[in-house]
Amino acid sequence: MSQSPIAGVNQIIKRFLLMFTPAALVIMGGASALIQSEVMLHRALTRSSEVAALEVGVKSTEAIVHALITDLTLLAAGDELHKMLSGDANKRTSIPPADWLAFSRIKKIYDQIRWLDTEGQERARVNYNDGTPSIVSKEKLQNKSNRYYFADTFKLDRGQYFMSPLDLNVERGEVEFPLKPMIRIGTPLFDSNGEKQGIILLNYLGEGMLANFERMSDTSNSQAWLLNSDGYWLKGPSPELEWGFMLEKPMASVTDHHPSAWNRVVSAERGQFEDDHGLWTFQTIYPLKHSSSVKPEVPGETALSSYNNMATTDYYWKAVRVQSREQHYSSSW
User: Fold this and answer.
1) b or e along 122-137 (b: 16 or more beta carbons within 10 Å of the residue's beta carbon)?
2) I want to staple 153 with a disulfide (CB 3.0 to 4.6 A). Which of 40, 166, 199, 298 is the partner?
3) Which pLDDT does position 100 carry in this prediction?
4) Predicted pLDDT at 143
């Protein structure tokens, strides 16, 4: 009995499948492994890229802190200021050294430059005034003897520097609006006889440093955050979530929004991990520790305000990059 045409075709198909299915499976398996390998490679590259981008932001922030100490040292060593300090105290005027105005105008980063005497009285002050620096008249100079930054700076020795935590400027007991992030740095002043004659204090406008951190951290694929040691955003995902510790927003913190992630961030110097939110990359910045490592020609140590009762390594910021899961996994294909 002859075989039907259909049966013959089926036989051919069966033989074809027997011959080529194993090969197809091998090819598919190889392709799958190759794709998986490519995915893993892209993820590894993404992780490395996140670390590198964060490192740039951290280094630029540390460089700014270093520059603040250098600026302070140069002003404190000025010849004209030294002559004022060593002259007859009864003949001193409220006119600051001539270079202070030019310094303020050129630098564009200091809200105030001040000399306070041994009693905490402002003896000379230059205000930046949003780009039009001016000398404050004698009748408007104030006594700051009751402010922590005066006491903590005045007690230091020659070559030591005070730096306050980064927070918002407060005027008459209220947070100033528009918000003005501020760091105060100071050092004692001495006359030609080595007698302490007060302090020099710079009010640094911190917004520039925060913007620089965000810009240098390259936020095209991730969010770059700067957090204080309590998990509050100094630079965060939105302005509404920033400065919660000063604006009576205790819930506006990573501690509250991402408690598990914060526990991992705060428990290590640096690291990287994934959770349901995405890929986290973090590093610790010790602004006081790095600012004390000034160049040999500008020797000195940095002290943190005793008002906060913290050692150099107790005051830190956490630099964080967060890449959402969607972004992280889409970048892997």
Assistant:
1) bbbbbbbeeeebeebe
2) 199
3) 96
4) 95
Name 318's bridge partners: 227, 284
Percent of the chain surpassing pLDDT 90: 62
d(CA 163, CA 185) in angstroms, rounded, equals: 4
Locate all alpha helices (DSSP H) within 110-219, ordered by sequence. 148-154, 207-216
Residue type, 29: G
Residue 196 pLDDT more than 90?
Answer: yes
Polymer length in residues for the chain: 333
Is 234 in contact with 181 (CB distance < 8 Å)? Answer: yes
Eight-state DSSP code of residue 2: P
Instruction: List domains and CATH numbers for the chain.
Output: 41-67+209-296+311-330 (3.30.450.20), 79-207 (3.30.450.20)
- Residues 237 and 226: beta-carbon distance below 8 Å: no
The single residue listed with the structure tokens 């964060």 is 54
d(CA 126, CA 61): 26
What's the pLDDT tens digit per position in 200-226? 999 999 999 999 999 987 767 899 999
Residue partners of 146: CB distance under 8 A and separation at least 6: 120
The dihedral over CA atoms of 163, 167, 169, 174, expressed in degrees to the nearest 10, equals: -130
Task: Identify the DSSP state of 299.
Answer: -
pLDDT in the model for residue 299: 39
